[in-house]
Amino acid sequence: MNESVVTLDCKHCGEKLLPFELPEAAGFETAFQLACFNDECPYYQRGWEHMQENYAVRCSYRYRIDPANGSASPLAVWSADAIKDRIMDVDVSLEAAEDDAAPASQEGDGDE
Ligand SMILES: [Zn+2]
User: Fold this and answer.
1) CA 106 – ligand 1 centroid, Å
2) Which residue among 55, 59, 62, 108 is least enclosed by CB atoms within 10 Å?
3) Residue 76 belongs to what H/E stretch?
4) What residues have CB less than 8 Å from 98, skipping those under 6 apart?
5) Which residues constitute the domain of residue 5?
6) Within a domain: residue 27?
7) pLDDT of amino acid 56
8) Is residue 98 part of a domain?
9) How many CB atoms lie within 10 A of CB 110?
10) Any domain includes 59
């Protein structure tokens, strides 16, 4: 029953996930996603070695969650600063969004 609950902390390092603007909005239900931008994150650090050893490329990935469905997937990055310029300076609360599906802007206009 709790499958829709989304954790806002990185499960690899415990850092708070930060919202970032998607490079391409097409194909996604939301304009932003959440990712761990901690450079010390073991998931991210392991990614460099993994990609170098298996694919001989210099890139890695960060832990990323799609807030639309709460699913986690790797966010490919090509440098330590990649996508950091897209981090949004907003507070995102997924729990509030889950509890109240109706947009707040529509309240107060009840006319039954
Ligand atoms: Zn992390």
Assistant:
1) 36
2) 108
3) strand 71-77
4) 4, 5, 6
5) 1-88
6) yes
7) 97
8) no
9) 6
10) yes
- Distance between CA atoms of residues 16 and 52, nearest Å: 27
Partners of 72 in the beta sheet?
65
Q: How far is the CA of 18 from the centre of ligand 1 (A)?
A: 10
Tell how far the Cα of 24 is from the centroid of ligand 1, in angstroms. Answer: 23
The pTM assigned to this predicted structure is 0.70
Give me ligand 1 centre to Cα 38, in Å.
6
* Closest residue by Cα to residue 34 from 88, 99, 98: 88
What distance in angstroms lies between residue 72's CA and the mean position of ligand 1's atoms? Answer: 12
Q: 3 alpha carbon to ligand 1 midpoint, in Å?
A: 21
Query: pLDDT tens track of the chain, all 112 residues?
Result: 445 555 589 999 999 999 999 866 556 667 789 999 999 999 999 999 999 999 999 999 999 998 888 899 999 999 999 999 999 987 666 554 444 444 444 445 555 5
- CB 38 within 8 Å of CB 61: no
Ligand 1 center–CA 36 separation, angstroms: 5
